[in-house]
Amino acid sequence: MTPQHHGEPPFLASLVPAEILAPADRFARARYIATLDPEADCEQIGFLLASCEFPWDTTRALELALLRTFAVAKGTPLLVETDELIRRTQKRYDDTALILAEIQENGVDHPRGRAALRRMNQQHGRYAIAQDEYLYTLSTFVFEPIRWNARFGWRRLSAGERLATFHVWRRIGARMGIRHIPADYAELERFNVEFERAHFRYSEHNEALATATRNLMLGWFLPRPLWPVAAPLMHALLDAPMLQAVGFDPAPAPVRRLVLGGMAMRRWVLRRLPPRRRPRLLTRQRHRSYPRGYRIEELGADR
Question: pTM of the entire structure?
Answer without folding.
Answer: 0.95
